[in-house]
Request: fold
Amino acid sequence: MLKANPDYLKLQGSYLFSTIAKKVAAYKEANPDKTVISLGIGDVTQPLSPSIVKALHTAVDEMAVKETFRGYAPDLGYDFLRKAIAENDYRSRGCDIADDEIFVSDGAKSDSGNIQEIFAPDCIVAVCDPVYPVYVDSNVMAGRTGTYDKASEQWSDVVYMPCTAENDFVPDFPEKTPDIIYICSPNNPTGTAMKKADLQKWVDYANEHHSVIIYDAAYEAYISEDDVPHSVFECSGARTCAIEIHSFSKNAGFTGVRLGYTVVPKDLKDTDGVALHGLWARRHGTKFNGAPYIQQRAGEAVYSAQGIAETKALVAYYMENAKTMRKALKDMGYTIYGGVNAPYIWLKTPDNMKSWDFFDMLLEKASVVGTPGSGFGPSGEGYFRLTAFGTHENTAEAVKRIAGNV
Ligand SMILES: *Cc1c(COP(=O)(O)O)cnc(C)c1O
Reply:
């Protein structure tokens, strides 16, 4: 009997961004004379840097020549890229990570959604609230849910760790001990980042309770403060309790190119002593046929001297927007967080306005689109996310409209 996977059917409601798209489409239809500025979805807007484009062209040309043509890539990634990653993102920062602990993939969304497959179905999962929706949804699809409580918007078997202004957006240790702990820092959606001392406490907690930390470092390149770690492996003891996920999307603008990687240290073992490195390798070998050669050469170029300089300039471009928004919104009297180590501003809605009401008001009065905090989890209620991924021009125009009309 053909039946859809019942765990998939548990997923609640429609995807946040399709709800936003519908509201924006309705607004545009009713107001054809208005131009809408979107500071909503977390996608980059600047073109690829010259060093990347050159590497892509060169790799394409190689594919056209018999001697340099490549078929299937090694499923864990080409050595040239794994080495460049381990060297530049880890060893140069004093983190003890070997080339063969790097698993190259098509991006951080796939890895952060798929990594839960190597853990037992009855593992308890903890997520920060607000949360990057992939962490919860991929575990719902895998059946790690219990029942859904509509009032609290939570699954009974998922541990939600509130991250709000009250705890400085650093989760407190939960009452129920989790097996898998998702941490995203610098954080999407709050734009805040964990200090090294706070992350070290979580690493110690994970080692003590034999839990694993899945550390999403997609926004690592945006870190500007010295006491914010670039990797969980800067913390001592992380090799026995952490997996780290990275992306080339937000630093080098690869959202449409697709490339990422995950680090699984060989010292990371389950309670029976099973090494998770081997399981993730097995999973890659079975369900993934390797990131394309052309993309991996582009990834290698990100670590060239020119690539590093161009990536820095891209990040600086977006962070200039964050600065513009921070200053203007503060001057208007808003309480804001983030935007210092991440391209997101997390704004407290005025007078405890509901996130969706603030969304409607901003769209109606300023034709500006952001993302309601409550869409990322119950603790996001009363907050609102604006992204720094716009152009300088539309970012400046957006804050001008907010100042003049809201
Ligand atoms: C954008 C984003 C990703 C996805 O990155 P891709 O490599 O493009 O799949 C992963 N995690 C977080 C938190 C993100 O915001």
Q: What stands out?
A: Residues 12 and 148 are 9 Å apart (CA to CA). The domain at 53-304 is CATH 3.40.640.10 (Aspartate Aminotransferase; domain 2).
